[in-house]
Design a protein that fits this description.
It is a single chain. Helix content is 17%, strand content 42%. The chain is of the alpha+beta class. The chain has 3 domains: 112 residues, DNA Polymerase III, subunit A, domain 2 (DNA Polymerase III, Chain A, domain 2, Roll); 118 residues, DNA Polymerase III, subunit A, domain 2 (DNA Polymerase III, Chain A, domain 2); 119 residues, DNA Polymerase III, Chain A, domain 2 (Roll). The strands form 4 sheets. It has a 9-stranded antiparallel sheet. The protein has a 9-stranded antiparallel sheet with strand order 15-11-12-13-27-26-25-19-23. A hairpin with an 8-residue loop joins β16 and β17.
Length: 380
């Protein structure tokens, strides 16, 4: 194996492929990054039996071949190289890397022990890459992080014709994001439960090209894989991951059809106020929100401890209401909203609030992004 490649292209591709390497691999070869040089250029791959990453890039290949080296070490080396072309040669049980006057020699792993990467399912459709990355970033806000509840660590991806819906919940909050896309089969109705971390990292990393191709196997949740592919500097990148097993809770019904109180507040002002007032909130206690007569008053702290109170303007329709929320969960939802005015819709103080962006004279239908948050008990 012998090839020559641009340093920036190689460093970026190696860093991308190595990002999903396991910290504590079950077998040593899973910490490796597979390098394959052939007629089509250079292919860099990683796989841990759950998630695979495959980057193809242009390179001047003099001799074809394959080598398996430590992925994290190679990423660190490539990041530190000078801005000159990189040449790699396999020499027996070692790989020699040369860049300018810098030279490295890496021990190889047994390439024959490396697992074969899963095949990419047939493409289901495409979506604009920037739009997809932003939608996923909003959706994963509410995804669970408790590995004891694996179903809630996923994002429910539902495809219905030209619409993709993304749903996530950790039992205390719920996010729902819809976006349009270009399906290969317009009448398709599919669903998948995708690991939230993989989905978030993948969507964010595939924004170099104009669109992302989504490929979903027809095996169903827990039985198949989902793949994402997009263009990158000097080539393409592809990720596959196994779908999570289990039944995602039926959460759509949690969004109420009617509301007793609707408030609209400047998002930036509300975020800053929550941050200030929350400074005195004890761990696992709520920040109180009181809506009355065009004013939203936030309070935190109680008894002999530190206390804080601050009021901001609010446009309020309906009955006065007082409730409370986990301040960090509230901030997460507010930050995920794009619009400068946020709408908070309530049925009653003991029921969840629905947060969404508000556009005056805009579409009166369901917002593209909704964030439902359960209230917290207020200290007396």
């Amino acid at each position: 194996m012998k090839f020559r490649v641009d340093r920036d292209v190689l460093a970026d591709a190696v860093a991308w492929a190595a990002r999903s390497l396991p910290v504590r691999p079950s077998v040593p070869v899973l910490a490796g990054l597979l390098i394959e040089a052939g007629d089509d250029g250079l292919v860099l791959s990683t796989f841990d039996y759950e998630t695979s990453a495959r980057a193809t890039l242009q390179a001047e290949v003099a001799d074809e071949g394959r080598a398996l080296v430590s992925g994290r070490l190679l990423a660190d080396i490539c990041r530190s190289l000078p801005a000159k072309p990189v040449e790699m040669i396999i020499d027996g049980a070692r790989v020699s890397l040369t860049c300018g006057s810098a030279r490295f020699s890496l021990q190889t792993m047994p390439v024959e022990d490396y697992p074969s990467l899963p095949s990419m399912p047939a493409a289901t459709g495409t979506v604009p890459s920037e739009q997809f990355a932003h939608a996923v970033a909003q959706a994963v806000t509410a995804a669970g992080r408790d590995d004891m509840l694996p179903v809630l660590t996923g994002v429910r991806l539902e495809i219905d014709g030209s619409t993709i819906s993304l749903l996530a919940t950790d039992r205390f909050r719920l996010s729902h994001r819809e976006l349009t896309w270009n399906p290969n089969t317009p009448d398709d109705t599919l669903a998948a439960l995708v690991p939230a971390k993989v989905l978030g990292d993948t969507a964010k990393s595939l924004t170099s090209g104009s669109e992302v191709s989504i490929a979903l196997s027809s095996g169903g949740t827990g039985e198949g894989i989902i793949g994402f592919e997009g263009a990158a500097a000097g080539g393409t990148r592809r990720t596959t991951t196994r779908l999570l097993d289990g039944d995602f809770p039926k959460v759509r019904s949690l969004f109420p059809a009617e509301h007793q109180t609707v408030a609209r507040v400047d998002k930036a002002a509300l975020i800053e106020t929550v941050k200030r007032v929350a400074l005195v909130a004890e761990r696992n206690t709520a920040v109180q929100l009181s809506f009355s007569e065009g004013v939203l008053t936030l309070d935190a702290g109680s008894g002999d401890e530190a206390q804080a109170s601050e009021s901001i303007e609010a446009e309020i329709e309906g009955e006065d209401i007082t409730t409370g929320f986990n301040p960090q969960f509230l901030l997460d939802g507010l930050t995920a909203i794009d619009e400068p005015i946020v709408q908070l819709a309530f049925t009653q103080s003991s029921k969840p609030v629905v947060l969404s962006g508000y556009v005056e004279d805009g579409n009166s239908g369901i917002p593209a992004f909704r964030y439902l948050l359960m209230p917290r008990r207020l200290l007396s």
